[in-house]
Design goal:
Elements (H helix, E strand, L loop, with lengths): L40 E4 L2 E5 L16 E5 L2 E4 L5 H11 L4 H5 L1 E5 L9 E3 L8 E5 L24 H10 L7 H8 L63 E7 L7 E4 L18 E4 L8 E2 L3 E3 L1
Parallel strand pairs: 8-11
Antiparallel strand pairs: 1-4, 2-3, 4-12, 5-7, 6-7, 8-9, 9-10
């Protein structure tokens, strides 16, 4: 009994054993009474932009290129990733249970775990830094007895969970084109939301791995996992953390006809030695039931 439950980055297409037969996708919860509130969202005018990348940093097998002109209609998008407290409000109102809660486990980065943590299964092949942790979920991100921080992005959310939250809030997930258009912040073909240099003037602009992955992190800000959803300076469109911190689900399939869904932005575990997907054009895919401690989302809405 197995499922294509996947971690992210290098493990995005490596199979891992699941504990049980995956339940069917959960039914959508009722729409929130505040469904049509657009507080905390940015209205973008849309238009045509150059999407994708095909320079030396591109991951060709991820389908980043070719660079092409893409048009998007006016839309709204969250300034920040959905936070722990926002997701808790959704669960309190709807009684929703995430895929990880129903399965009984989710993936957690090994460097964040206490030695006594109970594991649900072995690490995925080729990714020894992941652990399948029994009881890990958005409520207890490192396993039973651990605590999530309210100002941080919610994690351990599968694509199905993100879609359910968005429906409850009267929103939706962004398309990949909408996500990239907004993440670029008005810059044309820049590598990052702020330009082409990762740390201009030595200034850290995003939450990615610093040091030797996966052994040592040398981050000066003191954060080892996620940072608050409004950490770092926003991009030119007023969006925070569009690269680094947590992967963000999109509405689109990763490949035509496939079950996997595209994720954008990279996470706090990305490092150029193995996963340089903290660029605005970078993408990866994951099955819609997959969750881990570095996957979150933000919502979009029609204008």
């Amino acid at each position: 009994m197995s499922s294509q439950v996947r971690a992210c980055c290098a493990a995005a297409r490596e199979p891992a054993d699941a504990l049980c037969v995956l339940p069917s996708p959960p039914a959508g919860p009722p729409v929130s009474p505040a469904a049509f509130s657009r507080e905390g969202m940015v209205l973008l005018p849309g238009g045509t932009f150059r999407m994708g990348n095909e320079d030396e940093a591109a991951n060709a097998h991820d389908g980043e290129g070719p660079v092409r002109e893409v048009g998007v209609a006016p839309f709204r998008i969250d300034e920040r990733a959905v936070s722990q407290s926002e997701f808790a409000a959704f669960v309190d109102a709807s009684g929703y249970r995430t895929v990880a809660e129903r399965l009984g486990w989710s993936y957690v980065f090994a460097g964040l775990l206490a030695p006594e943590t109970v594991l649900a299964s072995a690490a995925p092949p080729g990714t020894a830094w992941w652990r399948a942790v029994a009881g890990a979920s958005w409520r207890e991100p490192y396993g039973p007895g651990t605590t999530a921080e309210n100002g941080h992005p919610v994690v351990h959310v599968a694509w199905y969970d993100a879609v359910a939250y968005a429906a409850w809030a009267g929103k939706r997930l962004p398309t990949e084109a909408e996500w990239e258009y907004s993440a670029r912040g008005g810059l044309d073909q820049a590598r990052y939301p702020w330009g082409d240099e990762l740390a201009p003037g030595g200034q850290v602009r995003c939450n990615i791995w610093q040091g030797e992955f996966p052994l040592v992190t040398t981050k000066e800000d003191g954060w080892v996992g996620t940072v608050p959803v409004d950490a770092h300076e926003p991009n030119g469109h007023g969006l925070y953390n569009t690269v680094g911190n947590v992967w963000e689900w999109s509405a689109d399939a990763f490949a035509p006809g496939g079950a996997a869904r595209a994720m954008r932005g990279g996470s706090y575990l990305c490092h150029d030695s193995y996963c340089n997907r903290y660029r605005v054009a970078a993408r990866t895919g994951n099955t819609p039931e997959s969750s881990s401690g570095n996957i979150g989302f933000r919502c979009a809405a029609d204008a």
